[in-house]
Specification:
2 copies of one chain form a homodimer. Chain A is α/β, with parallel strands linked by helices and about 325 residues long. Chain A has 2 domains: about 10-185, 3-Layer(aba) Sandwich (Rossmann fold); about 185-325, Hypothetical Protein Tm841, Chain: A,domain 3, CATH 3.30.1180.20. Chain A is about 30% helix and about 20% strand. Chain A has 8 helices and 13 strands. In chain A, strands 7, 8, 9, 10, 11, 12 and 13 form a 7-stranded mixed sheet that branches. A 6-stranded mixed sheet of chain A has the order 1-2-4-3-5-6, with helices on both faces. In chain A, helix 2 packs across helix 3 (about 110-125) and helix 4 runs antiparallel to helix 5 (about 175-185). The longest helix of chain A is centred in the C-terminal third of the chain and has 17 residues, at about 270-285. Chain A is globular, with a radius of gyration of 19 Å. The first copy, chain A, starts with 10 loop residues before the first helix and ends in an 11-residue tail after the last helix. Chains A and B meet through helix 1, helix 6 and helix 7 of A and helix 1, helix 6 and helix 7 of B. Chains A, B: This is Kinase. Chains A, B: One of its GO terms (biological process) is glycerol catabolic process. Chains A, B: GO terms for molecular function: ATP binding; glycerone kinase activity. Chains A, B: It holds the Pfam family Dak1.
C-alpha cells in the first residue's frame, strides 16, 4: 500500500494538525504534544465532560467525534498505540466543567493503564472521573467473558448517546456513566478483514492474508479473528455477521435497532451499501426495525479493506438520545 | 484488490438499492431499471430541477448528492459507463416542476451523447432543459481548451451552488444555468493516483502503476495524466497540485476560495488531512482565505488510492450559495 505522507514519525501529528486546520470552529489542539483535541469553543461550566482516546490511524475515530452532543476531548497516541498519561490528564482537564468527567474508550490494555493512572492523579487534584469501557467486538471473546471484548466501531453509539445525555443541564456524572454503560451493553459488532494496513513507522503490513481469503472477527489492529476462510459473497458475509450479532445479543422480532455498516478504510461505499441492502432485508424478514442506520467510514484502520457491522438495540430512551442534535463533520443528521 | 460483492453485473444495482434502503427519507429509486435516483419527497411544483448522472463506481458521486439544496435526480449507468437515454429522460421527468430542468454533469462523451438525446426528446414533450458541463480537471487539457476538460471531484461546487439557487422561488432555469456556469468557471481540480481500481465486471485493474510511482493528473477512470514519476512526499504532492491550480486559475492574494481535498477511495482521512495542513499553510502564505473547506470522499473510483485537490474561487454570491442549507448524508454543514 502506498501512502501520501511526509515523515512516518510525523504521520499522527500532521493528520491532527490538518484536522484542526480544516475545522477550526469544531476542534482545537492542546497540550505540549498537540495530541489532545478539545472542542474549539471550550468547556461549558456545569456540564459533565466526556473524554475518549486511543491510538491514531482510526480516523474519524477518535478525535473526529469531539463536538457538540458528542465528546468534549480526546487524547491519542501514535498509530495503533495508546495515548500518554500526561495527554490523558490534559484531555480530562480540558473536559472538566466542574461536574466530573466520564472516560469512555475502547477496552485495550495500554489505553486502560494510562487512562486509569491519569484518573488517579486527577482524583487527587479534585477532578472526579468515572470510566466506561466500550467492549462491543463479539469476535474477540465469548459473551460469558464480555469484559474481555475489544472496542471497535460500535463505540459511536455510546459516544452519541452519552454525548447527548451530557448536554442536558441536569445530568450528573453518574447519569452520564449509567447511560454510557447502557449503550455499551446494547451494542455488538463484528468485522471482516480482506487486506491488512501498514503502520507508517513499521513500513510493512500488519498481517498477511491470501488473495482469495477473508477473516471474520479480526480486530482493527489485525488481532486474530474467529475464522479465516475463502472470500465469500457479500450476501454470505452479511448473513454470517448478522447471525452472529443477533444470536449474541439475543435480538428478536419487534425490536428496534440502529445498524452501522462501517468500512475499515479502503472498502468503498458501493460495497457497504451492497452489504446494507442484504442486512436490511434480513432484519425485515425477522420483523426487526431499523432506526437511523449509518453506512460509511466511522472507525477505520487507515487503508485496510474490509467492513464491520454493529447493532445497537434501542429503547425509547436510547433512541431519543441517538436522534438528538450533534455537530461534527462525521455525524450526519440524516 | 478484494471486493465484497455478489454478482459483478449486479454491483451497481445492489449498491443503489442499499443507498435507497439506508436513506428512504432522502432517496427513491425510479425507472424500469432502478438506475434513476430522485428525491424521496418528490419534485416541488414551480422549482427549477437539476439532474446529474454518469457512471457508477464514484459514490457518493453522483446519486449521493440528490437532496434538498442539491440535485433533484440522477441517472447512472454501469461502473464507469454512462446512463442510458431512457434513464436520462426518466431523471429529467422526475426533476420537472414545470420551470425547466438543468442538466449538470461531467464532460464525458458518452454521458453527453445520451443526455443530449434525452434533452431533444423531452423538448418535444414540452420539458425545456439547459445543459452545463462540469470541466474542472486541469490535468486533462490546457486552459486554452477548457471545454475539453473532464469533470472530476470539483463537481460538488456547481452541484451545491446551483442547487441552492434552484431552491429560491424566483429562480428561473436561465438563472440556475447561469450560476452553475459561473461555479464551473470558478472551479479547478487535479488528482494524483497511487494505485488503480478494479471494475467488477472486468475483474482486473484499470491500469498499472509501479510500487514506487504516482501519476499526477490521472482521471477518475484511469485516463492518462500529465506526469508519472517517483512517489513524492505529501508536502511535495500538495505543493505540486496547488501550484498547478493557482497558476491555471490565476488565483492570487486577497481572494477567497473553498478547498476540497478528496480521496479517490482507499486513501484514508489521515493522509487527506496531512495534505490539507500543507495546502492551508501555502494558501495563508499567499494571503488567500479558505472558506468552508471539505476533506473526505466526495468523488471516488471505488478503492483507487490517491487524492484530488479542487479550488473554487468565491465571490459573495457564490459564497452565500455554498453556505446555504443542504440535506443529504454526504454534505456536512460544518
Amino acid at each position: 500500500m502506498k501512502k501520501l505522507l511526509n515523515r512516518p514519525d510525523a504521520y499522527a501529528d500532521e493528520a491532527l494538525a490538518g484536522l484542526c486546520a480544516a475545522h477550526p470552529d469544531i476542534y482545537r489542539q492542546l497540550g505540549e504534544t498537540g495530541r489532545v483535541i478539545a472542542r474549539a469553543g471550550g468547556m461549558r461550566e456545569g456540564k459533565v465532560g466526556i473524554v475518549s482516546g486511543g491510538g491514531s490511524g482510526h480516523m474519524p475515530t477518535f478525535t473526529g467525534y469531539v463536538g457538540e452532543g458528542l465528546l468534549d476531548a480526546c487524547s491519542v497516541g501514535n498509530v495503533f498505540a495508546g495515548p500518554s498519561v500526561l495527554d490523558c490528564m490534559e484531555a480530562v482537564k480540558a473536559a472538566n466543567g466542574g461536574r466530573g468527567v466520564l472516560l469512555l474508550y475502547g477496552n485495550y490494555g495500554g489505553d486502560k493503564m494510562n487512562f486509569n493512572m491519569a484518573a488517579e492523579m486527577l482524583e487527587m487534584e479534585g477532578i472526579p472521573t468515572k470510566t466506561v469501557l466500550v467492549a462491543d467486538d463479539v469476535g474477540s471473546a465469548q459473551r460469558s467473558e464480555r469484559e474481555k471484548r475489544r472496542g471497535v466501531a460500535g463505540l459511536i453509539y455510546p459516544y452519541k448517546i452519552a454525548g447527548a445525555k451530557a448536554e442536558q443541564n441536569d445530568a450528573s456524572l453518574s447519569d452520564v456513566a449509567a447511560i454510557a454503560r447502557k449503550a455499551v451493553d446494547a451494542t455488538v459488532s463484528i468485522g471482516v478483514a480482506l487486506t491488512p494496513c501498514t503502520v507508517p513507522e513499521a513500513g510493512k503490513p500488519t498481517f498477511s492474508i491470501d488473495e482469495g481469503e477473508m477473516e471474520i472477527g479480526m480486530g482493527i489492529h489485525g488481532e486474530p479473528g474467529i475464522v479465516r476462510g475463502p472470500l465469500k459473497s457479500a450476501d454470505a458475509v452479511a448473513d454470517d455477521m448478522l447471525e452472529r450479532l443477533l444470536a449474541d445479543a439475543d435480538i428478536g422480532a419487534g425490536e428496534r435497532v440502529s445498524v452501522l455498516v462501517n468500512s475499515l478504510g479502503a472498502t468503498p461505499l458501493e460495497e457497504l451499501y451492497i452489504l446494507y441492502a442484504r442486512i436490511e432485508k434480513r432484519l425485515k424478514e425477522r420483523d426487526i426495525s431499523i432506526v437511523m442506520p449509518r453506512v460509511g467510514r466511522y472507525a477505520t484502520s487507515m487503508e485496510m479493506a474490509g467492513a464491520s457491522l454493529s447493532l445497537c438495540r434501542l429503547d425509547s430512551e436510547l433512541e431519543a438520545l441517538l436522534a438528538a442534535p450533534a455537530v461534527c463533520p462525521f455525524w450526519s443528521a440524516v
